[in-house]
Amino acid sequence: MATEFVKNAVGRLVPTTINGELVIPFQGVGKYQPTGRKYAPPIASCANFPSDGNKLVATLKEALQKAGLKDGMTISTHHHFRNGDLISNAIFDIAKELGVKNLRWFPSASFPCHEYLIRYLEDGTISHIEGSMNGQLGKFCTQGKMKKTAVLRSHGGRYQAVQDGEVKIDIAVIGASSADAFGNANGLNGPSASGLLGFALADSQYADKVIVVTDNLVPFPCYPWQIQGNYVDYTVKVDKVGIPEKIVSGTTEVTKSPDRLLIAELTARFCEEAGLIQDGFSFQAGAGGTALSIGNFFADIMRKKGIKAKFARGGSNKYLVDALEEGLIEFILDGQTFDLDGVRSMRDNANHVWTSPFTSYNYHGKGNFASMVDVVILGATEVDLNFNANVVSHSDGYLLHGIGGWQNCLFSKNVILPIPLFRDRIPVIKDEVTTICGPGELIDIIVTERGVAINPLRTDLIERMKGSGLPIKTIQQLKEEADAICGPSQKPNLADDVVAAIKWVDGTVIDVVRRVIE
Amino acid sequence: MATEFVKNAVGRLVPTTINGELVIPFQGVGKYQPTGRKYAPPIASCANFPSDGNKLVATLKEALQKAGLKDGMTISTHHHFRNGDLISNAIFDIAKELGVKNLRWFPSASFPCHEYLIRYLEDGTISHIEGSMNGQLGKFCTQGKMKKTAVLRSHGGRYQAVQDGEVKIDIAVIGASSADAFGNANGLNGPSASGLLGFALADSQYADKVIVVTDNLVPFPCYPWQIQGNYVDYTVKVDKVGIPEKIVSGTTEVTKSPDRLLIAELTARFCEEAGLIQDGFSFQAGAGGTALSIGNFFADIMRKKGIKAKFARGGSNKYLVDALEEGLIEFILDGQTFDLDGVRSMRDNANHVWTSPFTSYNYHGKGNFASMVDVVILGATEVDLNFNANVVSHSDGYLLHGIGGWQNCLFSKNVILPIPLFRDRIPVIKDEVTTICGPGELIDIIVTERGVAINPLRTDLIERMKGSGLPIKTIQQLKEEADAICGPSQKPNLADDVVAAIKWVDGTVIDVVRRVIE
Hints:
The structure is a homodimer. The first copy, chain A, is of the alpha/beta class. In chain A, the strands form 8 sheets. A 9-stranded mixed beta sheet of chain A has the order 18-17-16-15-19-22-26-27-28. At the A-B interface, loops of A face loops of B.
C-alpha cells in the first residue's frame, strides 16, 4: 500500500497507512463512530489445562516457547514496576537467544531501564515499539533508527486498541508481585509490590497466550485477583521480578521552586474562585512537584470550607493518601501507585480502589470515569494559541515521553494545565506545537507564573472570573510576554519521514512525529 | 433443518438441531475441542453516552424501549433475588403491554415467583425459556406446552454459552440492590441486598444492551462495582427491586431427620477415613439440610485435628460464615449467598470473596476453580449403576429444577453424592436414570443411609477404605437393597417429543427431556 497523507481535523498531515495497515485520520472529538465488533480471542477449554490449576513451568524461556514465540509476534508487558522492571529485558534476551526476529514490543509504558533494548532494536530482534519512549529510546526513535513506525497511545487508547483488535497481542507477559500457580495475581503483596496490575488487564483478557511471572508464589487463591487466572496460560516463578527501590520512587516531594509554587497557588485560587471546589467534587492531579502542591492547596481549601471531595483519581502518593485518611477525600480511584504510601494504602484502605484503563479511560466503552472528574491537572510541553497541546515531544522535535492517561483526562469537566511560561528560555506557548496530542477544545485553562488564560470556548468560566483579582489574561498576551523575554521560538529541524504516530483515544491518528535532522 | 437424532457418548439419543440451530452431541468428558472464537459484542463509544455518567431513564419501560425491545429478542435476568425477584415479571408485563412477541427468556435460574410468566408463555409473549424451571414452570414445559424447546445449562455452561456466542443476549436486565447512575452496581448494600451479582457478569460483558435496575441509587462511585458501569447502557430507579424476606431464606437449618443425619455423618466419616480432610484442603457443600450437617461434621473434624481448610466454596450460609469467623476456613469463595449471614459476611469479611461463573465454573476458560476443590458434596434425584446422575427431573419424568453449578462441581477431585436410598418409596438408584446430567466417570462416591458405594474407577479410594468399619458396598448391592424394600422402579410414561435439552459444560447436548404423557 502506498502511504498517502491527508490533513486531519486538527490540520495535521497524517498518513493513511502505518506499517502497512490502514489507519483513520482524526475526525474531531467524538466524531469517529466505530462500526465494528470487539476483538474475539480464541475459545479455550479446561480440557487443555491442568485440573489441579498448577500452570507452573520452570522458566520464562520455557513459558515463551510453550506460548509459541516466533518471528513477527507482538509481545506485551505492563509498566507497574516502572524503572524497576526486570521482565521486559529478560523476554528479549530470551528472544535473542532463540534467534527470534522482528518482534513488536507493546508495553503500557517504557522507562530508562529499557534503554537496554536498543541493542535488540538494532539487531532486528525487535522491529519496533508501540508505547511510550523516553530518554534514549525516544532519541533512537526520533533519529529514525527504528525499523518500523512507532505508535503512541494513551492508557485508554491502549485498552481500546486491544479491545477493538487494532493490536493483536500474541503473548502477554504479566509480572506480578504476588501470584498463585493458577495465575491469579496482584501487585499488592510481596517484596516487589507495585500496587496494582490494571495496565495488564486488556492484555490478560485479549492476548492469545498469557504468562504470569512472579517472585512471590502463594498458595491458591492469590487474592485479590487483579489478574484472573482463568485468562492465564502459564505461570513462572523467578528469583526477582522487580527492583523494589526503583518500582516506586520512594517519596515524591512537593515543589520547592518559587515559580512552581506560585503556579500551584494560582491554580488552586483559580479553582476556588471559579467555584470548582465544592462539597462532593472530584479531582485528579499528577505526581509532579507542582501537581502535588496543588493537591495540598486543595486540601487546605477543603479544610477551610469544611467540605470533602467525593473522589480523587490517582496515581496515588502520600499526599493523596493523607487526605484520604484525614477524611478529606471519600474515595481514591487509582490507576497506579507512585510511592510506597500509595501501595500501602491501596492494600489497607477499603476506599482506596484499584481501577483499570477499562473503567477509567477506555473511550470505546459505554462511558468511562474520566469524563466525570470535575477538575483535572495535567502537564504539557507546549501549548498553541488554540489551546492545542503537546505532551510527547520537546520543542527540538525529540520524543520525550509517552501520553499516559493525559489524552483520556482531557474529557474531565475542567482541564487545567499549570505550566511555566518558558523552560530553559524556550517559550512553552507557540503558534503551533511540535506535536498535537490533545485538541484545544478540550483544554480549558492554562496557568502560568505570569497569568491565567481561559479558553474562549469556556464563556461560563470567563464570566465567573470577571472582577477576579487573579491575573486573567488571553493566551496571546501570555505568549507575547514570553516571546518578549525569550525571543521568538525556533522551529525544530525535521525531515519528512514519519518515525511515530500519535493515536487519539478513539484509535484515529491525531499527529505524527517526524525524524529530527541532527 | 430436519432434526435427526444421534446416540451421544453416554448412549442417549439427542437431536442434532434445537430450535433450528445446529447443536453438538456430547462427546465424552474433555473430548469436545472448541475451535471458534469468543462472541464479539459491538464496539461502543463514549461519544454516545452522557459525559457526566448519568444514564438514568425514568422507567424500566423507557429503558427497554430505548434498548430496542422487539419481537424475537433474547432477554436475560439473574437470580440473585431468588424468590423475591420483582424484575423478571415486570419486564414481560411491559413486553405484553407493548405487544412484543416471541421473546426468549434467558434467566440464570427461575423460582416459584416466576410461575406468573406462564400467562406469557401461553399468549406468545415468551416463546421459551433457556434456564432452570421449577414447579409449575417445569410442569408446563414437561407437558409440552412451551412453543420452543427449553435449554438447560449449568451456571458455568450459561457463561460458556454467552461467551462463545451460542446465546446472543439482546437485552440484559440486571437488578441490583445498590447502583449509581453510571451503572456500577453491587448486591452488597441496600434494602434488597442479595450478596453479589456474579450470575449477571456474562450478561453485562456480552449483551448488546445492558440495563441496571435498582431501588437504592447511590452517588458515583457505587463501590465495590460487581457489575461495571462501563458495560451498562441505561440505569433505572424503581421503588422496589426485590422482596427482602424472599431474597434470602432467612436461615437454612441443619437437618433433623435421623436418616439424613446418618447420611451426613457417614459422609464426613468417609472423608476423614479416606484422608480427604487434610490441613489446607478445600470443600464445597450445598445449602440443603444434609449438606449443612456435613459442613458441621467437617468443622468438628478440623477442630479435633487442629487443621484448617484453605477455602470453602459457597453458596454461603451461617454455618460456613461461623467456620470462617472461627478461623477454620481461610477463604470463602462464594458464588451466591443463601442467607443473611452470608450477605453480611461477604460485605464485612475481607476473606469472604465474591466470585462469578467465569472464575468458578466456565469450562471454556483457561482452567476454572471447580476442578481445584478437594471435596464436593452434591445432590441428585437419581443415580444409575454406572454412577451417571440426574439432577433436573424426577422419576416420573417431570422437570424438577435446574442444574445450577452441579455439572461444574463434578470436576472436583472427589465428588460425593449423599442421597437417601429412596424417596417416597421410589428407589433413587436405577438401571437407567430418567435424564443424564452428569457422566458417571466424574462421580466418585454415593453415600446412602444403608451404605457407601465407591466408583470402581477410583481404585485409590477403594484401596484406602479396605478394612474400614464403614458400610462400603457396591452400587449394585445398594440398588438391590432398595429394590427389595420398594419393589422395582416404574418407568415414566414419556412421548417422543423433546421438550428440553440438557447441555453439558462444553455446550454439547448430554440428554433431552421428553414430554410426559399425563
